[in-house]
Amino acid sequence: MKIGLIDVDGHNWPNLCLMKLSAYHKAHGDDVEWWMPEGRYDRVYKSRVFTDTYSKDTITVDNAGEVIKGGTGYGPGPNLPDEVEHTRPDYALYPQFSGTAYGFMTRGCPRNCGFCIVSKKEGRRSTHIADLSEFWDGQKEVKLLDANLLACPDHERLILQLAESGAWVDFTQGLDVRLITPDNVSLLNRVKTKMLHFAWDDPNTDLTGCFRRFSELTSIRDFRRRRVYVLTNYGSTHEQDLYRVETLRDMGYDPFVMIYERPSAPPITCQLARWVNNKRIFRVVPNFADYIPNPNKKSARP
Q1: Which residues in 27-62 are b (16+ Cβ under 10 Å) and which e?
Q2: Any idea which of 75-79, 99-103, 166-170, 188-192 has the lowest mean pLDDT?
Q3: CA-based nearest residue to 143, from 125, 115, 167, 114
Q4: What is the extent of the structural domain holding 21?
Q5: For residue 52, what pLDDT is reported?
Q6: In a domain, 223, yes or no
Q7: How many structural domains compose the chain?
Q8: Structural domain contains residue 19
Q9: Which of 68, 129, 213, 283 has a Cα-to-Cα distance from 277 of 20 to 30 A?
């Protein structure tokens, strides 16, 4: 078979689904390449992670016997077959990202946040699905894509695998600070990380105790390696957004403002993001009121 692959989102981030499909088909003797409008294909896979807000599917395929579309960007759909899901990714597909392994050790999340599709798509339990060896074979860096690793009952064994690999590990989706314990922080202290990510999404949930607890247990003292995503424009007021930002900074964390559906965000939320996320400005101008003397004054969106 001749197989064509289409990364609808572009090539700025490896598409793990396409890498697994490529490896699977190559192992079965099929000819695999990036799709081109000329020529003829037996099957074409179109994979899309992001929704219309961030990624448009404008690609028409009329030179294939079969076209299969999948990914979160297309909405709920079937998962990859097990024999494909547990295939080591074809890292040669994205040579610009060589030296980095990508994969999941767990799937699912118990939080069921309204802005996140994971619980609906993968279930409200964090379940072990793979060991590190399934997608890592000695790369210097590991990009872990798990939604909520710490919610998995087997997470300590999995963190130990990451620590023993000696690779630099990026918990790309962050860690759930509500699930911090002395035991798992002790293991996290052994993992090579450039930065740990957390989130404070719900302004009505007080997480200050959780963040203080992590500060007491972690060996990471540099605030620049302790980043916390602050979700805005999702049912929160500006005062609630500013409170979370300032509280995190006061506790020794590096806040980063995330705007939900940015086109609909009020100007002051966009200004807050500019202030916080430009770290030079954030350090030089410590008070938001000084960055915007009149917070109620409208300003152009970025």
Answers
A1: eeeeebeebeeeeebebbbbbbbeeeeebeeeeeee
A2: 75-79
A3: 167
A4: 1-90
A5: 65
A6: no
A7: 1
A8: yes
A9: 213
Does residue 272 carry a pLDDT above 90?
yes
- Domain membership of residue 257 (yes or no) is no
What residue type is 1 in one-letter code? Answer: M
For residue 93, which amino acid is it? L
Pairwise CA distance, residues 211 & 174, whole Å = 14
- Bridging pattern class, strands 106-107 and 127-128: antiparallel
**Do you know the residue count of the chain?**
302
Burial pattern 130-144, b for ≥16 Cβ within 10 A else e, equals eebebbbeebebbbb
Longest dimension (CA), the chain: 65
Span 198-226, average pLDDT: 97
Helices 267-277 and 238-250 pack at an angle, to 10 degrees, of: 10
Token pair for 27: 């192992």
The answer to whether residue 151 sits within a structural domain is no
